[in-house]
């Protein structure tokens, strides 16, 4: 763990391994977040990538109920800026087992996309992990993709 003082701000960085992973496909996302299908509440993660789609970090930005989850848009923007991300993928689970995007999922994705565009960060996808199958909003051409 590296700890550095920057004025009144303390930054802690934990390096997990030397090798950075590239997230190129839906399969890469599903493999990394497959464990979410066993959660009893909706968990929403933001996955921060550099311009080459190399994994920088992920962050749990929302913990909801068994059928919905919300999150703080400012937290998403702040973390994207701090990590100097070039792209973001949203990933959350549906404990109900239904893989498709709900109207709330679509609204959340639109809001995230609008705010990320303002800081020149691309929203690559919003992936929904369910027990028996998964859903890519980009591949399904769900709004805003």
UniProtKB/TrEMBL annotation:
UniProt-listed InterPro entries:
MPN (IPR037518), RadC_JAB (IPR025657), UPF0758 (IPR001405), UPF0758_CS (IPR020891)
Show the GO MF annotations.
metal ion binding; metallopeptidase activity
Residues forming the MPN domain are 13-143
**Domain of life, per lineage:** Archaea
Gene3D superfamilies in the cross-refs: Cytidine Deaminase, domain 2 (3.40.140.10)
Keyword terms of this UniProt record: Hydrolase, Metal-binding, Metalloprotease, Protease, Zinc
- Pfam families, alphabetized: RadC
Q: Name one GO biological process term.
A: proteolysis
The UniProt record lists the keyword Protease: yes
Q: What is this protein called?
A: MPN domain-containing protein
Source organism: Haloplanus salinus
């Amino acid at each position: 763990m590296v700890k550095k003082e920057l004025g009144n701000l303390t930054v802690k960085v934990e390096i997990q391994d030397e090798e950075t992973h590239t997230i190129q496909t839906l399969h890469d996302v599903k493999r990394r977040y497959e464990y979410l299908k066993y959660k009893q509440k909706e968990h929403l993660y933001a996955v921060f990538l550099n311009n080459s789609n190399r994994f920088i970090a992920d962050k749990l930005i929302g913990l909801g109920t068994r059928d919905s989850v919300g999150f703080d848009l400012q937290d998403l923007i702040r973390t994207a800026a701090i990590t100097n991300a070039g792209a973001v993928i949203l990933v959350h689970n549906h404990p109900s087992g239904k893989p498709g995007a709900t109207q709330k999922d679509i609204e959340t994705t639109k809001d995230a996309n609008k705010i990320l565009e303002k800081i020149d960060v691309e929203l690559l996808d919003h992936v929904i992990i369910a027990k028996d199958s998964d859903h890519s909003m980009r591949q399904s051409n769900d709004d805003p993709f």
